[in-house]
Amino acid sequence: MQIGMIGLGKMGGNMAERLRRGGHDVVGYDRDPELSDVGSLKELVDRLEAPRAVWVMVPAGEPTHSTIRLLREMLSPGDIVIDGGNSHYVDDQKHGADLATRGVGFVDVGVSGGVWGLENGYALMVGGTAEDVARLRPVFETLKPEGEDGFVHAGRVGAGHFAKMVHNGIEYGMMQAFAEGWELLEASDIVTDVHGSFKSWRQGTVIRSWLLDLLVRALDQDPGLADIKGYAQDSGEGRWTVQAAVDHAVPLPVITAALYARFASRQEDSPAMKMVAALRNQFGGHAVTAQEGQTGMGADAPGADVTPPVEVQR
């Protein structure tokens, strides 16, 4: 099958390569001329035979919006635009409705697989009409992992990115749980082989997973994670998952906490924790000074004298 691929970065470039290996005719466009097969979007569209299929693999937000707006003016009735980035499902619905006025189809695809997808395949969560998805099925079959799973036509336009959004929210919670477990094991004076403990969980346990494999790999490369800064960015999908939970009145305490933990990772000296320390000092005499970084046993500490100082009013 012939397909255009816009955006040939880490994901888009590898996806284009996997499609080529699978026998598809891929025409790629990227702003980097060294990666691009053509010099412009117009040239890409002109190179494709009608009815065209154009896969957009650029950052979510304005880069995707502007690319789809340009394609809208270049494509013809019967063509299909595929958004494989991390777009918000609400934006998919707008794009689908707008392109439909020109007779152009729209399919949203949530893609998971990262840098390993070229060799292992990509998990694909797809939203769109049955007709459009069926037409693109040869492309999906090549991109997905071998075997029965790894692909789902999740529902109408927007469903693919909604499913991927929830997938990423779950991923947030799983990573946070592994991270907290690692920190607790490191803090223990009983467990002397933390690295080996995680390795032992890779077989025969209910938490064995690819994430666990990657955690062990990270520790193999950098025991103690001395070269890693404790700062975690969020792609936006964690926020959208929490917002969708609010919109649907569905409680997501684990995913929400994991998102907030990422926010906390960006604060070198948390303002909120400064206030907590100040309040504990006020009612219990427990202080942590910025200059000394020293702690004192406050009134609420285990074994402390619970009789408050004379000057403290409760």
TrEMBL record:
Stretches the record annotates as Disordered: 293-314
Record keywords: Gluconate utilization, Oxidoreductase
Residue ranges of domain 6-phosphogluconate dehydrogenase C-terminal in the record: 160-307
Any Pfam family: NAD_binding_2
EC number(s) from the headed UniProt entry: 1.1.1.343
MF terms (GO), sorted A to Z: oxidoreductase activity
Listed Gene3D superfamilies: N-(1-d-carboxylethyl)-l-norvaline Dehydrogenase, domain 2, NAD(P)-binding Rossmann-like Domain
Top-tier EC class: oxidoreductase
Superkingdom as given in the UniProt entry: Bacteria
Family membership noted in the UniProt record: Belongs to the 6-phosphogluconate dehydrogenase family. Belongs to the HIBADH-related family.
Name of the featured protein: Phosphogluconate dehydrogenase (NAD(+)-dependent, decarboxylating)
